[in-house]
Amino acid sequence: MRASFYRGNRTFETGTAPMPAPADGEALLRIRRVGICGTDLHIFQGHLDHRVPLGGIIGHEIFADVVSAPAGSGFREGDRVVVEPVQFCGQCRACRMGATYLCYQLKVLGVDVTGGMQEYWAVPAARLLKLPDSVSDHDAPLIEPLAVATHDVARAEVKPGDRVVVFGGGPIGTLIALVSRHRGAEVKVVEINPHRVEMLKRFGLDPIGPEEDVKAAVNAWTGGTGADVAFEVSGSPDAAVLVTEVVRVWGTVSIIAIHAEPVPFQLYSLFARELKVHGSRLYTRAAWEEAIRLVASAAVNVGPLVSRVIPLEDLQRGMEEALGGGPVMKVLVEVGG
User: Do 128 and 226 lie in a common domain?
Assistant: First the structure.
């Protein structure tokens, strides 16, 4: 079967791999489409070489069909599924607390261990979620990033009437903005890429563009009080400096972006306004279930995020284009038809 292998040095190579044999409790999947996300771009740039093995197969935003499944798993041949790509021990303090997605022995499928950039994949059936017919094949690969967003918004406790600032209008930032708006919040998104600024407008979102002073724009919007919640999703050191500066007294700052290097952070605002700051990583099962409901009910329209669909053999080019800063939002890899 075909698979794409990470070779290091910004290189992916498509070749052949043996057909996987499912172990006890595993389902065999035929992979349909895989999304390229920000974590994959960090992998491509070598930022996660301490986790991703050379010759490894990445990909964790998965849409697939079930080929076979264990008896009693609730899945059968032909089911359309997405994959919750976490591997946890179930015994450590984090798991006992209910934070299995933050397990001290956590492995992410498609990062630390084999992922979905291959035609067939054997995955524990416990990690699968079935898709209703109302979720289209086009939208299905966006369930994983939407689950990130639903988890982030839940962690930040966004509520009706809140004013929310999202730093970064890429796929995750846009989805956080859409989920926050669905919850009844007013939202502004800070973004410097002109293509993404226009896409935000098409979603009916209100961007703060590259020509604007972010702090002044938020002060004008909130009468000088500051936003209730600010999300840092851009990965920009400049945003890290600003994110605590735009939030009101007792406001919330949520850090979602992966910052590969230490960055400056305004701690004085944290002290002076008694801000609540937290990180937000991955997702709960409840976040996945909410994401599926939002897409199935058309409450959140994820489809327009897809910029293009490429074949597996073009994964290298897809990574380069996604990093290029051009008119690209979300790239999907067509693994099998």
Answer: no
* From 11, 14, 16, 39, active-site residue: 39
Distances (CA, A) of 249 to 163, 270, 274, 277: 13, 9, 6, 12
Question: What CATH number has the domain bearing residue 293?
Answer: 3.90.180.10
User: 183 pairs with which residues across the strands?
Assistant: none
To the query of whether residue 42 is one of the catalytic residues in this protein, the response is: yes
Higher pLDDT among residues 324 and 286, named by residue: 286
Structural domain containing residue 233: 157-279
Q: Which helix (H) or strand (E) holds 247?
A: strand 247-255
**Which tokens in the block code for residue 306?**
């897809």
pLDDT, position 185 = 98
- Tokens encoding 255: 């850090």
Q: For the full predicted model, state whether its pTM sits above 0.90.
A: yes
Q: Match 């992922």 to its residue by tokens.
A: 115
Predicted confidence at residue 337, as pLDDT, reads 63
Token pair belonging to 226: 């500051």
Q: What pLDDT, in 10s, does the model give residues 178-224? A: 999 999 999 999 999 999 999 999 999 999 999 999 999 999 999 99
Catalytic residue among 11, 14, 42, 222: 42
Is 244 labeled as catalytic in the residue annotation? Answer: no
